[in-house]
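Supplementary Methods, section 5.1.

A reviewer requested that the exact input to the structure prediction be made available. We therefore reproduce it here, unchanged from the version used in the analyses.
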Amino acid sequence: MSSLDEIPAHVGFIFLDEIAYTDKARKALSATGAGRVLESFVQRVKLLPNVDVAGASSLLQELRVDLEEMEGLKAREVLFPIRASLTGALEGPSLPAIMALLGKERCIQRVRSSQSSFSP
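The structure derived from this sequence is encoded cell-by-cell as follows.
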C-alpha cells in the first residue's frame, strides 16, 4: 500500500458477509486439489477451541506440510485456495491474522460458501 485510500480494498473482507472473488481467486478455487485443501482446512479449524494468530499459523504450517507429503501439493496450491475462500483475493494481510480476525465460525462459513460456489 502506498496511501491510506488503499486500505478499504485490503481489509473490506473483514466487514462483509458476502465475498466478491477476484479472477485470480476464482482460478485458485477452481484449481485441481482446491476442494481437498478446503475440506482438510475446515476439518482442522473445527478442532481448534478458538482461532488466534499462533494457532492459525501452526494449523496452516501443518496442513501445508501434510498436503505436500500426501498429495504432492506445493505451498501456493494449499494456501491460495484458503486465502481466496476467506477474502476473495490472493493478496492482503497475513493468512493467520485473517483467520484470527474472522474467527472460527466465519472461517468455516466462508470456506463452505466458496465450496458451494466453486465445487466441480
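Residues 2 and 95 are 21 Å apart (CA to CA). These observations are discussed further in the main text.
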